[in-house]
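A quick aside before the break. I want you to see a complete sequence-to-structure record at least once, exactly as it would be stored in a machine-readable document. Don't worry about memorizing anything.
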Amino acid sequence: MKALFIGGTGTISSAVSKLVVEKGWDLYLLNRGNRLDQVPEGATVIKGDIQNEKAVAELIKDFHFDVVVDFIAFKPEHVERDIRLFTNKTKQFIFISSASAYQKPLSYYRTSESTPLRNPYWEYSRDKIACEEVLMAEYRNNQFPVTIVRPSHTYGEQKVPVAFYGKNGSWQVVERIRQGKPVIIHGDGTSLWTLTHNTDFAKAFVGLMANQGAIGEAVHITSDEALTWNKIYDCIGSVFDMEVKKIHVATDFLVGCRPDLEGPLLGDKAGCAVFDNSKIKRLVPDFIATKRFDEGVREAIEHILAYPELQKTDEEFDRFCDKLINVQQAGLNMFKELF
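That is the input. The structure line, written in tokens, reads:
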């Protein structure tokens, strides 16, 4: 079986690439060759930029694939290009969408594939919805063999998942916990959130590849473990035997202070993310997510501690947290003095 991955070296795609090779697939990765250290042994890199459609068409002119997966398509024009490139060149095309495309705010806490797609807060999610619509129209009208996969918050060994962070990634949040400094959690920290390890995601994803029952279908892949944000941060703290000092800040206030958080918070992490996974389990009967978050986050932190280059500090984010915490406390003190 022959597969082409566009991308293939990110958090999700690297785990899938590794498992696909282990399963004996003939795997090709189309990318610019900037992260060759993430390419699994046995995979073949086709060096090219997917944005250069003419050049890619030339690179793949003699290929035909059982499965093509685009991990880096974000806008309708990206999938329109993919349709042109891969019509009659693959038996299945898998598009990576996002669970953030589901209705926000939710009308029911538990999300299934029948939950409406609507996100007024995040352009990223609206673009993913538009991509899905283009692909499903092509499936209905021209039998383009699409499968849509909607990941939720998926993580691996190179990044610790947190609610929000600054320009340099999530490590500064971990550092604040390790140093005994308070960390900000949106809302009251009791909304439920699902985190999925990339190795678990890969098991279900590979089960969808060359799966004729998945053609024309949309499916999400997540763990069944839903934790509160308070518990998620406690799991991080437990790695260092530290009690996490939590400061709860209203989501609206956070977004008012940092408007760039509207999408990632109001459009995603502020609500509950609890998933009905019966569909993926029907399509891939042996799938079960086995990596608990407390285990996965410990492995991630231990890996990052072993590689200093992954410990990206962020003084600007640190100052933002301190200022916001001080402003909230000052406002509370002022209220108490007035009343």
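Two observations worth writing down. The two ends are 72 Å apart (CA to CA). Residues 225 and 292 are 7 Å apart (CA to CA). We'll return to this after the break.
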